[in-house]
Write a structure and sequence with these properties.
The chain is an alpha+beta fold and 776 residues long. It contains 31 helices and 19 strands.
Length: 776
């Protein structure tokens, strides 16, 4: 076959997702070359044009470790690239034989990458198949810039074509990439060749991407103790989820590789990886059916059919892990993900939606969506701190409360309609059983009004909490009655899936008796299984020796009888002062800020940092953000619950007071947090004051049910009749708005009694005015 009247194709050298490569002869220049015919499947005209542009840019690169590109173009509808013909094999075909060869090849890869990056060219598809090694040991990088975007590799069934083992988190999500994406891929390759396995593996590509995004990497030295400590440290840094945490350039990596070559491993002093670090986290097991159902539901969203999915199950059953898989699928397919969380300690009305709006609304988004000011004004009322971003947006005119709430809900629908028209959207409401009434009202409204939008709402909840979550019970009943939602109930793992999970966690084949013992005691709860493994490791009953996990007879293991006992046993391994710091953090809530914790703690800063670092290493907490010292989250909601349960009443109240005073100093406008903390501290004056203010703010946001709740709680802390009158006057006004006439009349009668008792004509007059409204 003669291509473009010039290149005679002689034999096929290989085939991949991007096309087929042939050996060929350039009849014009009389030389042997390699020709890659690009596959047109899924690329389209624009995709082929982009790849040709990338090839033309790469042709400007002139480096001994980069395969030269001679020509690129189209002929008879086929796009092609003509390259230097290399005699040799890829790293995939012939991996490095030893550390010396690996370091030599890696240094050459870094030299090639540094040259390309200086010319503003990112490889985007670095993997062993794209590194050719000549018989003389010269490494050559090929296929610069020819990676197909992940979204274009996603099939209608939600599966991904091609390898995703070497892809960086930011590239998987379709975001802008720079040189550090190539460094991440280099880190994966180094991990594979040193540890003898890839850092992240799973049966499905989406599950692999999910691990790239969320799962901590197990250091390669855990897999292979012979890995040089400095190389181990470098690989872990290269695999950082955030580009800013990786080395700055390929030149930096090259310098560190040279240090590995020059410094013997035995003289390098580094901290040995702990046994806990041997435990693999992030890979989901035993949820294939549920993931397939969720994938099918997301597929309907892409066809403009709005969906609502409820994911339920007991604590530790894997709701968050399943949600992460759905988030990954949505973002990889070009979707926008908005996540809101609900907390047991409560919060301002619309708290989860405020979190979503803070992420969704930027000046660029508002401009692109061409949002009218009146829609933006109502969105700002849900999340008032957005006022700082949009200071020129005037508030909407006042209406009666019912009309204002309806306008707010419809404007939220309009915003989501505009957003989902631009890209499909996934809204996640975590722990919805703790949602405030205003959020639940808005949730029901969205379920009814977004059925023709590219929007999926996913809400998780615990069934065991339903008896205490009456508002959410009503919401569930309404959604089921109107058939507005699908439901996935997560059950405990069966024995075979427990075996798979233990094998995944420990990276080793596990004796059947051990599997059965763990299954019997944990009853297949995934979080309990993981916590039991960690507890056994920390107690020394499960240990690593001779390349395998070792344990005594099952009868000697003494597996804890509950998750809380397991957590308590793990916490007890920490020094007492560290436990105190974590107890104080638990008083704040599942999420806590270093700034508040440091101000409230009586420990010095160094001790604080050590405590948080050790808790993070023990996988008890994780860092969410580094802003202002950092925001942290307990790894599971049961951990702070267990910590707080270990406090006697007096000490618990004192800690709540300490946290309240710090919040009052640092964030005086956080009325809901102050109301909660002072209530738990049982300080009547402060609790009443902030509960009343929180109720007033809820009322201003049309969250009438939440306002009633705050006012009712405030009544419990009234220290005098006048405070009771003020609180009941506020509550009866809300009862009037929502037409709860018996409750309103009861408050009015109580107000009349107080006014007479105090012999206060002003209070009598206020009561009479309210009674007139009642009877009008």
């Amino acid at each position: 076959m003669l291509l473009n009247n010039r290149y005679r194709l002689t034999s096929e050298l290989g085939k991949g997702g991007m096309g087929t490569i042939y050996s060929a002869h350039d009849t014009l220049l009389d030389r042997d070359v390699a020709v890659k015919l690009l596959s047109g499947q899924g690329l389209g005209t624009e995709g082929r044009a982009r790849m040709l542009r990338e090839a033309q840019a790469a042709a400007r690169l002139n480096h001994p470790n980069i395969v030269s590109i001679y020509d690129a173009g189209e002929a008879a509808g086929d796009s092609y690239i003509v390259m230097e013909l290399i005699e040799g094999e890829s790293l995939h075909q012939h991996p490095p034989a030893d550390l010396e060869e690996l370091l030599s090849i890696s240094r050459q890869i870094c030299a090639a990458l540094e040259h390309a990056h200086l010319h503003q060219i990112v490889h985007r598809d670095l993997k062993p198949e794209n590194v050719l090694v000549t018989p003389e040991g010269i490494a050559k990088l090929t296929d610069f810039g020819l990676a197909r975007p992940v979204a274009s590799r996603l099939t209608s069934e939600g599966t991904i074509i091609g390898t995703v083992f070497y892809i960086s988190p930011e590239q998987a999500l379709g975001r802008e990439v720079d040189a550090r994406a190539d460094l991440y891929a280099l880190g994966v390759m180094l991990y594979e060749f040193t540890a003898g396995q890839l850092p992240f593996v799973a049966d499905e590509p989406i599950a692999v991407i999910s691990q790239h995004l969320y799962a901590p990497v197990v250091p390669p030295r855990v897999r292979n103790p012979q890995v040089h400590p400095l190389l181990d440290e470098l690989i872990v840094q290269l695999l950082s989820k955030t580009p800013d945490d990786r080395p700055a350039s390929a030149a930096d990596v090259l310098q560190r590789l040279e240090r590995v070559s020059s410094e013997p491993a035995q003289v390098t002093v580094v901290e040995e990886p702990g046994l806990i670090e041997r435990i693999n986290r992030g890979r989901i097991v035993g949820r294939e059916k549920e993931i397939a159902e969720a994938r099918a539901i997301w597929g309907k969203v892409l066809t403009h059919t709005g969906q609502f999915l409820l994911v339920s199950g007991e604590p530790g059953i894997g709701k968050t892990r399943l949600t992460r898989e759905v988030i990954t699928l949505a973002e990889v397919s070009g979707g926008k993900t908005l996540v809101g969380e609900c907390y047991p300690e409560g919060g301002a009305p619309y708290t989860p939606f405020a979190q979503m709006l803070r992420r969704a609304l930027s000046n660029g988004v508002v401009r692109d969506l061409n949002l009218p000011p009146y829609i933006l004004a109502d969105l700002i009322s849900i999340s008032p701190d957005l006022r700082l971003r949009f200071p020129d947006i005037p508030p909407n005119p006042r209406l009666d409360p019912q009309a204002e709430q309806q306008r707010l809900f419809e404007n939220t629908v309009a915003f989501l309609a505009a957003l989902s028209q631009r890209q499909p959207c996934l809204m996640v409401l975590e722990d919805a059983h703790w949602a405030d009434q205003a959020s639940l009202n808005l949730l029901r409204h969205l379920a009814r009004r977004t059925r023709r939008q590219r929007l999926m709402i996913l809400a998780t909840y615990r069934e065991v909490e339903l008896d205490e979550a009456l508002p959410f019970q009503d919401t569930l009943f309404s959604l089921n009655r109107e058939r507005l939602a699908s439901r996935l109930k997560l059950s405990r793992l069966e024995l075979q899936d427990t075996r798979r999970m233990l094998t995944t966690l420990l990276g080793d084949q596990i004796p059947e008796a051990f599997v059965e013992g763990i299954f019997h005691e944990t009853e297949g709860n995934p979080f309990f299984i993981e916590e039991v493994c960690k507890s056994l490791v920390e107690s020394g009953k499960l240990y690593f020796a001779d390349g395998h996990w070792q344990h005594p007879d099952l009868a000697e293991l003494q597996i804890p009888q509950s998750v809380r006992v397991t957590i308590q046993a793990r916490l007890s391994k920490l020094p007492a002062e560290y436990q105190e710091i974590l107890q104080l953090a638990a008083i704040v809530g599942r999420d806590f800020d270093y700034e508040i914790l440091a101000k409230a703690s009586q420990q010095d800063e160094e001790r604080m940092i050590e405590a948080l670092e050790q808790a993070e290493r023990a996988q008890l907490i994780e860092e969410l953000s580094s802003y202002k010292g950092g925001t942290f989250r307990f790894a599971h909601a049961l951990i702070p619950t267990t910590l707080v349960e270990g406090l006697i009443g007096l000490r618990r109240r004192k800690l709540h007071r300490r946290i309240a005073e710090v919040i009052e100093l640092l964030r005086p406008d956080d009325l809901e947090a102050l109301a909660y903390q002072y209530s738990q501290a049982e300080l009547p004056e402060k609790a009443w004051h902030y509960l009343l203010q929180a109720g007033q703010r809820a009322q201003e946001r049309y969250a009438n049910d939440d306002a009633i709740r705050y006012y009712s709680d405030a009544l419990e802390f009234c220290e005098n009749d006048r405070d009771c009158f003020t609180t009941q006057a506020a509550r009866q006004a809300v009862y009037h708005l929502v037409a709860c006439r018996p409750e309103q009349l009861a408050d009015l009668n109580s107000m009349q009694i107080i006014a007479d008792k105090l012999n206060d004509d002003t209070l009598r007059f206020d009561t009479l005015i309210a009674l007139a409204d009642y009877y009008s």
